[in-house]
Amino acid sequence: xxxxxxxxxxxxxxxxxxxxxxxxxxxxxxxxxxxxxxxxxxxxxxxxxxxxxxxxxxxxxxxxxxxxxxxxxxxxxxxxxxxxxxxxxxxxxxxxxxxxxxxxxxxxxxxxxxxxxxxxxxxxxxxxxxxxxxxxxxxxxxxxxxxxxxxxxxxxxxxxxxxxxxxxxxxxxxxxxxxxxxxxxxxxxxxxxxxxxxxxxxxxxxxxxxxxxxxxxxxxxxxxxxxxxxxxxxxxxxxxxxxxxxxxxxxxxx
Length: 254
Ligand SMILES: C[S@@+](CC[C@H](N)C(=O)[O-])C[C@H]1O[C@@H](n2cnc3c(N)ncnc32)[C@H](O)[C@@H]1O
Description:
Elements (H helix, E strand, L loop, with lengths): L5 H4 L11 H12 L7 H14 L6 E5 L5 H9 L3 E6 L2 H13 L6 E5 L12 E7 L9 H10 E12 L10 H38 L9 H10 L4 E7 L2 E10 L1
Helix pairs in contact: 2-5, 3-4
The structure holds S-adenosylmethionine.
S-adenosylmethionine binds next to helix 2 and helix 4.
């Protein structure tokens, strides 16, 4: 499906009840590792991202939307690389900071409070730019994909792990809702059985945000691939997360 112009892309604007993404993660930060972090599927996704990044010793990795550091720490478990994390939530970063100190990793990891729409880094800075379940929070994704292309070194890899779900269109469209409920049904079962009541409650609220495009703007991997090609990545491949058809990992080579 061709990408519609951004202005027509998301069918519904929440009224005053809308909680912005920063507030959402401010509230979630202390429970993040005990909710989404308890779901095995999330760890499988992060592991696949690290595997497909092909990370090597001393390479420079940028983790966009590093949150509490779950992905960044997996990169460091895999190879003695250098990781920079950026995130727009100071509360999520403060949890990451505690882990960095506890593990004495400050010579290998740095982070900064920054929006993924900014990515204020020099061209050709990173061997790998990775991001998991973050970039779908951006309404307008293309400028960030272009920026990622620019800050990668030639031959560098952009590795994206996210939900393969086209949530564009009218929120009142029953077909769209059914498609999303099919995915959310699996998500809620995993949350309840693996993460318990707290995780379920969080993922249930999150699901509603996805349905209403309230800070959650997922697109399909076909659409991500199209954006990467438009940004002039030379080779773009997509792999499914085994056993979880709604989650995929894209690798785009500069
Ligand atoms: C679902 S969490 C994912 C965290 C981590 N990547 C993981 O997989 O566990 C999404 C993260 O993206 C951050 N985030 C959301 N929108 C962002 C934006 N526009 N710029 C930077 N970070 C953002 C949130 O603060 C949060 O930490």
